[in-house]
Design a protein that fits this description.
Radius of gyration: 20 Å
Number of helices: 11
Pathway: Amino-acid biosynthesis; L-lysine biosynthesis via AAA pathway; L-alpha-aminoadipate from 2-oxoglutarate: step 4/5
CATH topology of the largest domain: Isopropylmalate Dehydrogenase
Number of domains: 2
CATH superfamily of the largest domain: Isopropylmalate Dehydrogenase
Family: Belongs to the isocitrate and isopropylmalate dehydrogenases family.
Keywords: Amino-acid biosynthesis, Lysine biosynthesis, Magnesium, Metal-binding, NAD, Oxidoreductase, Phosphoprotein
Bound molecules: 1,4-dihydronicotinamide adenine dinucleotide, magnesium ion
Catalytic activity: (2R,3S)-homoisocitrate + NAD(+) = 2-oxoadipate + CO2 + NADH
Protein name: homoisocitrate dehydrogenase
């Protein structure tokens, strides 16, 4: 099988880590029978300054018409509003209907404060308060601002369905590094339906229905009110497996969860639709370390594996995860954000060797 992958490095260290991701794909063991072709694509603030748009049509069209998946680095956002500029990754999610944002957070034996964390946040990515339908009204008592929180059965169903599928698949991919305290896949539905009985109520009900399907009979389904979810996530992160949430709660939970494992340079994500997946490290363009050759490539390498998972290549993904875990556990080649002295290249070489 040959997969065509769009490479969108973007700005800053995106240009350092995306080439590392490409090397991983090029170096997969030949026993996997997987080949890749690549197409370099533009997006980001640099692209905006050059061309007047952060996301050229050509990038979108090439992804749609030619590619099976993509890797996205990071983009810089100006700290003050610049006319005409808007985030290309947000636009890409819309244009390609990438309705799920998937963020695994995991420790390894060598990279944990004692608690083995191995969870995934699955965030709905198309609706909720982020439909951005807001308005402000002048009243005799002063201004009042309102926003629409839109929750649909369709979006709630498909996000819960994919969360269930991820829970099942994780059982296959974990290489003996599964949390030993848990022997059954689990999905935790997060909501606030005790207060928002219609919107979050619909999310909760629909998630329950989606996860009651026969194919998920081996999945344990539980639920948490979002505030207590935050408390438990920080007290007892080792308890969780897959957490599914509407857009806003998922946004907050996924950044919070990333803080559980130390460096941003470790945390991958994927933007997933029915026919496409974009792997994307969670970090930004890191201007403070740009050009020094010390950016941590692990978040990107894990994003490569995550993309492959969603393209149906679980075996390849599992091998990449194992190689990364091996690198972290050996702790011989770590970049400065992890307390080491290694360069991006040395970490990449070590992972490639293990692969
Ligand atoms: P950042 O994630 O770029 O950096 C935060 C801190 O983490 C910095 O000290 C950086 O050196 C470190 N760091 C991040 N990734 C690392 C890696 N791979 N290896 C080693 N250290 C790493 O976030 P910051 O500084 O808030 O934002 C910088 C720029 O990135 C801004 O323009 C911001 O808008 C943009 N950004 C873009 C994101 C995206 O493309 N998805 C996400 C977050 C920020
Ligand atoms: Mg966020």
């Amino acid at each position: 099988r040959t997969l065509r992958i769009g490479l969108i490095p973007g700005d800053g260290i995106g240009r350092e880590v995306i080439p590392a991701g490409r090397r991983i794909l090029e170096s997969l063991p030949s026993s996997l029978n997987l080949k890749f072709s690549f197409v370099d694509l533009e997006a980001g603030y640099g692209t905006f300054q050059k061309t007047g748009t952060a996301l050229p049509d050509k990038t979108v069209e090439t992804l749609k018409n030619e590619c099976d998946g993509a890797l996205f680095g990071a983009v810089s956002s100006p700290s003050t509003k610049v006319a005409g500029y808007s985030s290309p990754i947000v636009a890409l999610r819309k244009k390609l209907d990438l309705y799920a944002n998937v963020r695994p957070v995991k420790t390894t034996a060598g990279n944990s404060n004692g608690k083995p964390i191995d969870l995934v946040i699955v965030r709905e990515n198309t609706e909720d308060l982020y439909v951005k339908e807001e308005r402000t009204t002048e009243t005799p008592e002063g201004k009042v601002a309102e926003a629409i929180k839109r929750i649909s059965e369709r979006a709630s169903f498909r996000i819960s369905n994919i969360a269930g599928e991820i829970a099942l698949r994780r059982q296959n991919i974990r290489n003996g590094s599964a949390n030993p305290t848990r022997d059954q896949p689990m999905v935790t539905i997060t909501h606030k339906s005790n207060v928002l009985s219609q919107t979050d109520g619909l999310f909760r009900e629909t998630a329950r229905r989606a996860l009651a399907a026969e194919k998920f009979s081996s999945v344990f389904v539980e639920e948490q009110i979002v505030d207590s979810m935050v408390y438990k996530l920080f007290r007892q992160p080792e308890f969780y497996d897959v957490i599914v949430a509407p857009n806003l709660y998922g946004d907050i939970l996924s950044d919070g969860a990333a803080a559980l494992v130390g460096s941003l340079g470790l945390v991958p994500s994927a933007n997933v639709g029915d026919n496409f997946a974009i792997g994307e490290p969670c970090h930004g363009s890191a201007p403070d370390i740009e050009g020094k050759g010390i950016s941590n490539p692990i978040a990107t390498i894990r994003s490569v594996a995550l993309m492959l998972e969603f393209l149906g290549e679980e075996k390849a993904a599992a091998q990449i995860y194992a190689a990364v875990d091996g690198n972290l556990d050996a702790a011989q080649f770590l970049t400065p954000d992890m307390g080491g002295k290694a360069t991006t290249q040395q970490v990449l070489d070590d992972v490639l060797k293990r692969l």
